[in-house]
Amino acid sequence: MTTETDAPLERVLATLALVIISLISLANVVVRYFTNASFAFTEEISVFMLVILTFAGASVALRRNRHIRIGFLERLFPRLRTPLILLQWLASMLVLGLVLWFGGQFAWEEYQWQSESPGLGLPNWWYVVWLPILGLCMAVRLSQMTLDRLRGRVGDEP
Hints:
- The protein is 73% helix and 0% strand.
- Helix 2 runs parallel beside helix 6 and helix 4 (81-113) packs antiparallel against helix 6 (130-151).
- It has one domain.
- It has helices at residues 8-35, 42-63, 72-76, 81-113, 124-128, 130-151.
- It contains six helices and no strands.
- The model has no long low-confidence stretch (mean pLDDT 91).
- The chain is mainly alpha-helical.
- The chain crosses the membrane at residues 12-33, 45-63, 84-104, 124-143.
- The complex comprises the extracytoplasmic solute receptor protein and the two transmembrane proteins.
- InterPro entries: DctQ, TRAP_DctQ.
- Part of the tripartite ATP-independent periplasmic (TRAP) transport system.
């Protein structure tokens, strides 16, 4: 895969999230084994990192044409390939638009209410703001891949 069809920022975020999840989970297991107690913050951080991992990984998958898509209709009706690709893009953008809207609204409300996380007492918007940011990354990567497919730069099957 060439660098022009890559998502380097999202790859780095996903990798960091996976490394952090692994390290704090391992540390928690070791501490629990030796002391019969555990770190209280590990679940909160792990869930947050899992959201980052999921959205960043989905963004990479979209850019690399590895996302789940039903290509059956494209193969069945090759003359409708372009309208079907545009329909896929439109439906996906609708869903991502909802994620952006409601995720952004939720992040703004968390910021306004100054709510704090239960485990560490950090502002909740620190966790939630990543939802619309990475949703936007996904929309950009989806649009890039759609243009590549329409221009014939990328095959329809991953």
